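About this split. The held-out portion is used to measure sequence recovery: a designer receives only the structure tokens and must propose an amino acid at every position. Recovery is the fraction of positions where the proposal matches the reference. Here is one held-out target exactly as it appears in the evaluation file.
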């Protein structure tokens, strides 16, 4: 399936109801595997339409991210199209009692080293996406997804997932003082070492 036809799909055909009483270790492991496959598949799909981060955007965030990360990250800006809900969307809605974002309304989504934006790139949205790219680069996609899914299953809230909490804390810090220098990768390493994820 090509990118053009993919972004127009509603995702309804792949939604499955979730039995909320079955969150055994094996069920969580299945969810982790499903989300990992989703991230990898979307990364491959959007890679074909992606561009390198422009010099202007690199300059805007270079005080916070390594050159290696900034060279590896690519972006896609969707104009007149939206990222459809993932195959596990209805499960996430059921598990969270509706407290899960609608992908068509998010400003961006990070798929490993590809950040997909709806309509335009904005500094804070880029920063948030880069935090997730740094988390994935440091933790690896399997560990990142495991922590993300377990955080969601524990809190039953997307916004309370520690990986998301850190991304929002750091993008707020950046937005409040863009000239202040701090290393997102060092923050990710510190949270990992302290077991905060």
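Reference sequence for scoring:
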């Amino acid at each position: 399936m090509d990118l053009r036809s993919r972004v127009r799909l509603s995702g309804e055909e792949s939604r499955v109801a979730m039995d909320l009483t079955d969150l055994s270790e094996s069920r969580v492991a299945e969810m982790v595997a499903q989300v990992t496959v989703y991230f990898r598949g979307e990364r491959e799909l959007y890679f074909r339409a992606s561009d390198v981060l422009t010099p202007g955007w690199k300059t805007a965030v270079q005080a916070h991210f390594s050159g290696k990360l900034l060279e590896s990250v690519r972006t896609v800006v969707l104009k007149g199209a939206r990222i459809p809900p993932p195959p596990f969307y209805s499960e996430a809605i059921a598990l969270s009692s509706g407290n899960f974002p609608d992908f068509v309304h998010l400003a961006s989504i990070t798929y490993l080293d590809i950040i997909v934006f709806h309509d335009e790139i904005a500094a804070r949205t880029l920063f948030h996406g880069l935090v997730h790219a740094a988390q994935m680069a440091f933790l690896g996609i399997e560990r990142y997804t495991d922590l993300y899914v377990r955080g969601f299953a524990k809190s039953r809230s997307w916004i309370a997932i520690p990986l998301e909490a850190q991304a929002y804390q750091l993008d707020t810090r950046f937005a409040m003082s863009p000239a202040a220098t701090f290393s997102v990768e060092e923050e990710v390493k510190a949270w990992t070492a302290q077991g905060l994820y």
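Annotator remark: Residues 3-193 form one domain.
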